[in-house]
Amino acid sequence: MSLKRDIEQMFFRELEAHGRAFVNNEALENVCKRSLTIDGLEIPLHYNPAREASVMAKVDEKSLRERKCFLCPDGVAPEQLSTEWDSPFGTKYLIRVNPFPIFDKHFTVSISKHIRQHISGRFLDMLSLAQELGEYVVFYNGPKCGASAPDHQHFQAIPKGNLPIENMVRRGEGIELLSSGSAGRIFEIKKFVSGAYLIVSDDVKRANSLFDYLYWSAPIKAAGEWEPRLNVVSWYEESLFYSVLFFREESRPECFWSENSQERILFSPASVEMSGVAIVSSKDSYDKITQEALANMITEVSLKKQQAISMSNKAVRPQEILKVGIFSEEEICFIFNKPYQFNGKGYEGEQVATFQDGKILFDGEIFDEIYFASNEEEASFVLQGVTIGVNFHWERKEDQTFAGNLKLIVENQKITAINVIGLEDYLFSVISSEMSATASKQLLKAHAVVSRSWLLAQIIKNKEIVQSQSEYTALQETEEEMIKWYDREDHINFDVCADDHCQRYQGLVRASTTPTVREVIDETWGEVLMYDGEMCDARFSKCCGGQFEEFEYCWENKHHPYLSKKMDILPQGLMPDLTVEENAVEWIKGSPDAFCNTSDKKILSQVLNNYDQETVDFYRWTVEYGQKELSELIKSRSGVDYGDIIDLIPIARGTSGRIWKLKIVGTKVTKIIGKELEVRRTLSPSHLYSSAFVVEKSGVCKNEDGVELPEKITLRGAGWGHGAGLCQIGAAVMGEKGYSYDEILLHYFTGASIIKNY
After folding, report:
1. Integer angstrom CA distances of residue 20 from 31, 107, 268, 342, 699
2. How far apart are CA 291 and CA 243, in angstroms?
């Protein structure tokens, strides 16, 4: 049986009992009505005396404390029926017939426990309810915006077709498109109200991302309020979710409070009124309302014009919302530099969250997860003791400041801190963290497009994995061979991490204060690399070593044509086949001409931040190990006791000469390992610069069993990082030589196109 049928059967059973609901529903037939026209929109005006209790409800803190909550189970009249509804997102609601209806079949949908009215985190429930009810509109009245129970989370539902603004949207009348993207579309409502926006999307979660974007862009009116003043109306139709958001300035117009009886109009607008149906409970007020008076009252309570313009400007350039995993600890200390809200309470200053029995202890309470959000301008928070450069030679801890919101979850018996932030705001920090803000503008623009493309590609890829319900693995292992790669799939509870495993992101700590980086983000806003209609999995590394690597030698066995073998020079010369061992040895031992073959300190400073400059050799480099040192290193890094190391034998190389299969020959174990990062991790206390190296053995020693061993093993290598996609140092040189950002991109991503995605 459908939820719609359940509640309608409940409705008729309750009316059969001839209780309060019956009386007030019968009274709807006698409601006085007339029409007004505002902005060409016909506005029904109702005089409904039964609504007095709602219109005149006292919702100040004192009154709320003194009355019994009429939405809690123990505050509901015994004869009032209810139907349970479990949201797909884990929240239980009780649906009841509204005892003071505005329309026939008017329902109240309240959360089963006593929680303050706030829609953040509940919008998904609202859309899901609209989808299940089908022929109903679901609406939300925020605190100070018509909610007669601001102390208890609830929605309301009425049949479709009653609201003028709903019908206006269907006709495509009075709306102006502001933005369109993969998440959906945002329109501005241009009739009747100011500061109203329409969201249209085909997916609940994508619609929620657009909602969050607008919600967290809106101002909070006054201290002590925990969310922007707003009303929301949602419905589901022809596989699309429609939501109208009415942002508000005032709770009620001035005339409501007037002591002059001639001026007083008891008009208290909520979702229905903002949607074009004016309802009053006083005959005197009904008689006084004119078209002009109604228009003025709606304007007075709506968002001020300048604030609406500001929000519309933001809506023109929406961003994907990202979840960035920062770090994990058993205890996380953080500081809110502006007020943040969680669970209807405000927090500012120093805070501590502690892992306890599989949950999060915060503010004396236990939670499964916590989401802190702020509507304040320039809101930020500090996470103390963040580890950066994980497993690199420069690994260290530092306090870092982040814009956006903060989410805390439980993961691997620790608390993980997640920064929830817009993609473009995230890139502002990434570009500054990955390289110097003093780099050439063309280089920075190229990197912005690459970073944006990579990120969106990973999000798309993860969604595909989840939707297919297939088990993704990055490990192929037999007794003789262990092939492993490292990619974004290691993260299941957030989109990307903040360290070099994904993209280096250090919040506002290294976000540039120069206007160039902001200009770069603005000028490339939404630009991505596409190939054959698909988002490019755009990779980058510090230095390719003179020739590009292909995707399949670093990650899963999939070929991306735009990540093809190529020399890092223009025009292209004769390209050696570096998958052939003899060619690779000659190439690595030489110093071929390439964009990234530079020692220019000015150029290098554009790409290498201060701690990266602790490494001075990268195009060609040398690492030496003694026998004992190497044996112990490989054992500690791999967890495998190979015994003494007899040899390291390249088995297979990629197009840049990087080894993706390496045979480790030990006195106890012989095994082939790969791919390139696994090789680098195994042969270094942190990360070897690259796996493009040749092995040289020198000297002879014997172990206690008399086995002859090399006394010293030297690795002579080329490049820094995996070598696929954009070579940051090569791109820096190109930028200095006058190449434009699109020329740089098309050099490193063969056959790709630069497309504005949103």
Report:
1. 17, 14, 23, 37, 98
2. 26
In three-state secondary structure terms, 506 is coil
- Give the predicted TM-score (pTM) of the model: 0.65
Give the side-chain half-sphere CA count within 13 A for 191. Answer: 19
584 burial type by CB count under 10 A (0-12 exposed, 13-18 middle, 19+ buried)? buried
User: Edge to edge, what strands does the sheet with 32-38 contain?
Assistant: 32-38, 41-47, 278-280
CA 583, distance to chain mean position in Å, is 45
- Going by C-alpha positions, the residue among 211, 203, 285, 281 that lies closest to residue 246 is 211
Residue 169, SS3 per DSSP:
helix
DSSP alpha helices (H): ranges in 608-666?
627-638
Nearest to 327 by CA among 505, 128, 513, 454: 505
Provide, rounded to the nearest whole percent, the portion of the chain with pLDDT above 90. 47
Question: Cα 393 to the chain's mean position, in Å?
Answer: 30
CB contact at 8 A, 158 and 106: yes
Q: How many CB atoms lie within 10 A of CB 574?
A: 5
Q: Kind of pairing, strands 240-247 and 753-756?
A: unpaired
Instruction: Enumerate domains of the chain plus CATH numbers.
Output: 3-250+305-314 (3.30.428.70)
Q: Where are the beta strands (DSSP E) in 153-216?
A: 154-159, 175-181, 184-189, 196-201
Counting residues of the chain whose pLDDT is more than 70, the rounded percentage is 91
With contact defined as beta carbons under 8 Å apart, do 566 and 730 qualify? no
List all residues 6 or more positions away from 698 whose beta carbon is below 8 Å from its beta carbon. Answer: 710, 711, 712, 713, 714
182 three-class SS: coil
Q: Per-residue pLDDT tens for 351-393?
A: 999 999 999 999 999 999 999 988 776 789 999 988 765 555 5
Of 90, 270, 84, nearest in space to 163 by CA? 270
Burial 11-37 (b: 16+ CB within 10 A, else e): beebeeeebbbeebbeeeeebeeeebe
Give burial (CB, 10 Å; 0-12/13-18/19+) of 61.
Answer: exposed
Residues 6+ apart with CB under 8 A from 506: 388, 400, 429, 433, 498
Residue 47 near residue 58, CB atoms below 8 Å:
no
Helix (H) or strand (E) holding 336: strand 331-342
User: Distance (Å, rounded) from C-alpha 95 to C-alpha 17?
Assistant: 18
The kind and range of the H/E element at 451 are: helix 441-468
Q: What gap in Å lies between CA 667 and CA 707, rounded to an integer?
A: 8
Residue-wise pLDDT tens digits, 554-580: 999 999 999 999 999 999 989 999 999
